[in-house]
Write a structure and sequence with these properties.
Structural class: mainly alpha
Number of domains: 1
CATH class: Mainly Alpha
Helix content: over 70%
Largest sheet: none
Number of helices: 14
Mean pLDDT: 88
Distance between the termini: 43 Å
Radius of gyration: 24 Å
Length: 298
């Protein structure tokens, strides 16, 4: 029966057959939860109970959200976190990829070591850094005191430092993915271009800005988009490090959503928070897609 169709139709059927497992999983685990979250955001479902108790309230949850200083403050903390996380992630991973792209001894070992943070357990990373950055007995502050600093930083216990320090820890733990993609893109740059630049007497900075960065700009654009989105998906990192403290200084949007839903049972309110966060990321992504024509070279 399959042979009765034209070759183009057969290719289409085979294509859909290969895509169907992914599409089924994507529908079940992404599309349906997103639609259900949007549904809950306009309902009154703030207690665990029967679904028949749901009551339509329109935009009430969104209005309460914009009046809630703590909830709105969590969005601004997410922005602060992203302003540290995104640039540092891209710069450090680009730097590491540049080093990995050079020929030196123990090159393979270095590439292996860079995978270690990426495969490490989030909880284990949090425990290690809480020990290292302990303001009283931690090795970092002991070294600082030994070299003459009387009042070393409080690190994760300081309300002004906890958020950027947590972001830098997340950069260290997650930069492997970006580094590998940058490295793959750099290895795609024709060596003839660098040889010609060397003959012209171009400096390392000129080769980086005029050759490497334009050539890898599609990869850079992809990483900018995914890193910005990833910076808002920071729940596990901050929860294991600080649990939103000290004094709510690191309670970003994802932590606020978690607390409102699973600690206070304000499911509809938390759903409204999620929809607003999704909307902000959607707008940022659209702006990036429209602006890529000015600096991305395919």
């Amino acid at each position: 029966m399959f042979k009765k169709f034209s070759s183009k139709t057969q290719e289409t059927i085979v294509g859909f057959a290969f895509l169907s497992p992914f599409m089924i999983g994507y529908t079940i685990f992404v599309i349906i939860p997103v639609l259900y979250t949007a549904f809950l955001s306009v309902m009154d479902f703030d207690n665990i109970g029967k679904m028949s108790n749901l009551k339509f309230v329109g935009l009430r949850n969104f209005i309460e959200l914009f009046k809630d200083q703590a909830a709105m403050g969590s969005y601004f903390k997410s922005i602060e976190y992203s302003l540290v996380y995104v640039p540092c992630m891209l710069i450090f991973s680009l730097f590491m990829a540049s080093l990995m792209n050079k020929n030196f001894k123990l090159k393979r070992l270095s590439r292996t070591l860079i995978f270690m943070p990426y495969v490490a357990n989030v909880t284990a990373i949090a425990i290690v850094f809480n020990v290292i950055l302990n303001p009283f007995d931690g090795p970092v502050n002991k070294i600082l005191r030994a070299i003459g600093m009387k009042n070393p930083p409080q690190w994760l216990l300081d309300s002004t430092m906890a958020l950027p320090v947590s972001a830098l820890i997340a950069v260290w733990a997650n930069m492997t993915f970006q580094t590998i993609l940058f490295l793959a893109a750099m290895q795609d740059v024709p060596k003839e271009m660098y040889e010609a630049a060397d003959l012209e007497g171009a400096s390392a900075w000129t080769k980086l800005t005029k050759l490497t960065l334009p050539w890898i700009s599609p990869t850079t654009f992809f990483l900018v988009v995914t890193t910005i989105i990833g910076s808002t998906q920071n729940f596990s990192n901050l929860y294991t490090l600080t649990k939103g403290g000290p004094g709510g200084a690191t309670e970003v949007a994802m932590l606020s959503i978690y607390k409102n839903s699973f600690e206070f049972n304000k499911f509809s309110f938390a759903s409204a928070q999620t929809i607003v966060l999704f909307g902000v990321l959607l707008v940022i992504t659209i702006v990036q897609w429209r602006g890529q024509k000015k600096w991305v070279h395919y």
